[in-house]
Hints:
Elements: H1 3-24, H2 30-35, H3 42-69, H4 73-98, H5 105-110, H6 113-145, H7 154-169, H8 174-202, H9 207-212, H10 214-217, H11 234-250, H12 253-259, H13 265-300, E1 306-307, E2 310-311, H14 316-323, H15 328-361, H16 369-397, H17 402-413, H18 415-426, H19 436-452, H20 454-457, H21 467-481
Antiparallel strand pairs: 1-2
Amino acid sequence: MQPIYILLLIAVYFCVLLAIAYFTGKNDSNDTFFKANRKSPWYIVAFGMIGASLSGVTFISVPGLVQGSQFSYLQIVIGYLFGYFVIAYVLIPIYYNLKITSIYEFLKLRFGTHSHKTGAFFFFISRVLIASFRLFLVTSVLQYFIFDAWNIPFEITVIFSVLLIWIYTFKGGIKTIVWTDTLQTLFMLIAVFATIFIIINNLNWSLADVFTSPEFKSYSRIIFTDNFNDKNHLIKSFFGGMFITIAMTGLDQDMMQKNLTCKNIKESQWNVISLGFILIVVNFIFLTLGALLFIYANKLGIQIPTVDGAIKTDLLYPEIALNSHLGITIGTVFILGLIAAAYSSADSALTSLTTSFCVDFLDIENNVKSKQKLTRKIIHVVISIILILVIVSFKYVLNDNVINSLLQIVSYTYGPLLGLFTFGIFTKIAIKDKYVWIVSVFSVIATYFINMYSETLLNGYIFGYELLIINGSITFLGLLLIKKTNS
């Protein structure tokens, strides 16, 4: 597929997004930008959150996981479902009853200002890294398959990508995103189903042939219980996935901001629970696509792309879609699916980061009314610049499969949030608020060293995604050490 055709396709796609932004952004008040006036239909939010939850990382990186980890990722996704039940019946009622804009305002009400700022800070770091990871993956693909052919630097590709997101979110904010995410989820799912159909057709298989073939069975093992020390073990993956969801969705302003646009608690709960079940099915479909990609590549002798000498399984899907002569249809649906998956998470990240910084750090709702909108717009631009700088830096430091890197980094940054909220919800203990940031930073450092030396200290044990639980537990115990004593 020629680069010029890909670029034209992206241009048309963004024209559609701008049209949606035009109609949803006519009222660009802060209430619309931050809360969508709390009038979003829950089923629209739920469908759009599929794309936001999956993102470009799932679209590219989950199929790429199949070669090394088979279908073990599903163990984590099943854990996600149980995490969504905790979010629905523990966290959502708290947020709605407190009538808060930023979920970190809970920490202020429970502990004090220092806890509030600490929680917002760890969210800010977490979401900047996650959004940057996801956009890095997409811009890398665009760079590899389009802009390298025109000798356009990677940095320009990144600026171009972030600028497009800024343009269609700067007025309507979360109200625009609720509707653009719906469109983007639809395109992403169409792309996956179309790709599976085209590859099966070119292999001269039926759908039944896929699931009965020895090639598919060699990639499709789900349950891993052989070695508890292995990071893919069922127990570790399940509980890691459960707590990753609680932290990355329930304690994350980005994801919860969409939930809080629903009309009431019950509709928000329906949204979350339905999402949990749907993600199991959708991730199974993505893993099936991954198996088919490797089977097809092996049969036709297609090499997995390398970048700077390193094999990048993340790039196998775009390599087959764009360069394996399967026709323009698969190339078209791939590009639509890729940009839809990526921007459905990146646009909401930009909005939620703007919301959190304005509410949690600048206390914008108590500022002079005439200056509130201008402040929000300035912060929106500043956050965009920060994302650009971080994405560019990843080009020089990131080597691992992107989803592995993503889930490992959140084990460090979301751990303090998990510990703080757990302590605040399930205990009534008062703490010395000014020391909370010290406990949180210590927890991250301690978790890092535990992970680094686990094989030596724990008889070969390798931490997986359950590292998040360790981090949260250290924070919880640390808060006990700074509890207030009766004088």
